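A quick aside before the break. I want you to see a complete sequence-to-structure record at least once, exactly as it would be stored in a machine-readable document. Don't worry about memorizing anything.
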Amino acid sequence: MPSVEEGSLAPKRRLSCSTCFDALWFCYSPVHQMQQYYRLGVLDNCSGKWTSLVDCLSLKTKRSSEVQAYVEKLVSPNMKST
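That is the input. The structure line, written in tokens, reads:
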């Protein structure tokens, strides 16, 4: 049986920005804006959603190795040891 590299067994996931776009689209909806106004007294400027979408779109133009390094950097501080 031919040896298979361990990293090649995991299927490659494609980076999709549709969730970021959907979140931005919802952020500008009257429902979300009225919820924010009711709860906080101010309308949401959606800047965090814009930042997420721009970051996602910029990752789409990078090499897969750079994307993998960025994702690992994001995930590693969020991992909690038990």
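Two observations worth writing down. Confidence is low (pLDDT under 50) at residues 3-9. Residues 14 and 28 are 27 Å apart (CA to CA). We'll return to this after the break.
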